[in-house]
Design brief:
The protein has eight helices and eight strands. It is of the alpha+beta class. The protein starts with 22 loop residues before the first helix and ends in a 7-residue tail after the last strand.
């Protein structure tokens, strides 16, 4: 199901055709997220800019509330800088780490199953993870005790003790719909045998390679890393990559009422109550129309 998680919220609970870009090229060819949140263009510190002491025109002393917000923003940016998070496309080799991440973040009824991860990563190579590197015996690194370190892959063979630890993920497929429907979240039966004459999964279910709408099924951040801006950083990096790749015209998601404002700040627009009934319904359709400005 599409689940929505952002920093600060308590834990609740490939088939390519010739008409679309190669997904590996899309994710691997995009500019990497800056190691420092302070300098990354998609993570501006707007309040610091507003209070630039070198700008003598119209400068005024901030009130206490503004000062507190500036301080919190700077603390979050410092935390991200120390963490050195960076994005990497999710593949079938990341399934176990994604399962661990969902187990630590969502209640049982809201978790993506291992089979759905396998299906989504096999059929659509557009999902993105946020990682850091750590060793299991590094007592100064919080990542050394992360739930996902046991399933983490080594960074490179020359240092097998250093692991690539998954901190957050954005799991997606594509659809021909303009918003997310129940069928888009479904797992086609016998999908692994779809290439044989004996099996023909329902074409209305699951990923649609020809679709121009990216469906965000899961935005998850490890509980210990929530409240640090990691979810926002991941979403901004993801939007930038998909927008510059031209792989889709829009990104759609389902949100709870209390999360509408969070996604609105990222540019998503409310499209009304969703027709999706997963989990009892009550979702809000939100869509971000992309500018599709390729690199060049």
């Amino acid at each position: 199901m599409p689940r929505d998680l952002f920093e600060g919220r308590p834990a609740m609970g490939a088939e390519d055709d010739d008409t679309h870009p190669d997904h590996d090229d899309i994710l691997n060819g995009m500019p990497e997220l800056g190691r420092s949140a302070r300098v990354h263009p998609s993570y501006p510190s707007e309040h610091v800019e507003e209070l630039d002491p070198d700008d003598s025109s119209g400068y005024s002393t901030p009130d206490e509330e503004t000062k507190d917000k500036i301080a919190k923003d700077m603390e979050r940016q410092d935390a991200l800088s120390e963490m050195k998070p960076y994005p990497k496309g999710l593949t079938i080799s990341d399934v176990e780490s994604c399962v661990k991440l969902e187990d630590a973040t969502f209640p049982l009824q809201e978790r993506c199953s291992r089979e759905k991860f396998e299906y989504r990563f096999t059929k659509c190579q557009l999902s993105l993870g946020m990682y850091t590197s750590a060793t299991e015996d590094d007592s100064e690194s919080q990542a050394s005790s992360a739930p996902t370190i046991d399933t983490a892959q080594i960074v490179y063979s020359g240092a097998p003790e250093r692991k690539l630890v998954l901190l957050a993920h954005c799991v997606v497929t594509k659809t021909t719909n303009s918003t997310i429907m129940d069928a888009d979240m479904a797992l086609p039966p016998d999908w692994e045998e779809s290439g044989t004459l004996a099996h023909s999964p329902d074409p209305s279910l699951g990923h649609k390679e020809e679709g121009r709408t990216v469906c965000i099924h899961s935005l998850a951040v490890l509980p210990a890393y929530q409240g640090r801006g990691l979810g926002t950083m991941l979403m901004k990096a993801y939007i930038q990559r998909i927008e510059q790749s031209g792989a889709a015209d829009r990104i759609a998601l389902l949100a709870h009422d209390e999360l509408v404002n969070f996604y609105a700040k990222l540019g998503f627009e409310v499209k009304g109550p969703s027709k999706a009934t997963f989990g009892g319904g009550g979702w809000v359709d939100m869509v971000l129309e992309l500018k599709n400005q390729p690199l060049g």
